[in-house]
Design brief:
By secondary structure, the protein is an alpha+beta fold. 37% of the residues lie in helices and 28% in strands. It has helices spanning 2-22, 25-28, 98-106, 113-124; strands spanning 39-47, 50-57, 66-71, 74-79, 87-89, 108-110. The protein has a four-stranded antiparallel sheet with strand order 5-4-3-6. Strands 1-2 form a two-stranded antiparallel sheet. β4 (74-79) and β5 form a beta hairpin. The protein starts with a helix and ends with a helix.
């Protein structure tokens, strides 16, 4: 009986050590998220049948507002109140449904880089 208890305690100690070495950031408050999480991804056409992802670093503050809007037949990404997009997706707006075309004519406003990246992924693929 004593042997079983010692063996059980040994196994528990090994499991605890494995957990501590595998997930130390959970107890220190740090995250494993890369420092480049503020990268804005955009798809650009390289050839008629392929897409390649390229990144643009976007520094955002809490007051940044982005608008996805049709610009010269493509999707323009406007920052705050700019009248010219700082980025343009190489995606033809006429390929979208009438509802999406209407939304893009009016402009889709987002308030964070994460939300912007989701919209770009939705419209860019």
């Amino acid at each position: 009986m004593k042997r079983i208890i010692i063996l059980l305690l040994f196994v528990i100690a090994i499991i605890i050590l494995l957990i501590l070495f595998r997930y130390p950031q959970n107890w220190t408050g740090t995250t494993s998220e890369p420092a480049s999480s503020n990268i804005l991804y955009n798809s650009t056409a390289n050839a008629p049948s392929s897409q390649e992802t390229s990144g643009i670093i976007a520094m955002a503050s809490k007051t940044d507002i982005y608008t996805l809007k049709e610009y010269e037949g493509r999707i323009g990404i406007f920052h705050n109140d700019d009248t010219v997009p700082y980025q343009q997706l190489d995606v033809d707006v006429s390929t979208f449904s009438e509802e999406d075309q209407r939304l893009l004519k009016e402009g889709i406003t987002v308030y964070s880089i994460d939300e912007l990246n989701r919209k770009i992924e939705d419209y860019g693929s």
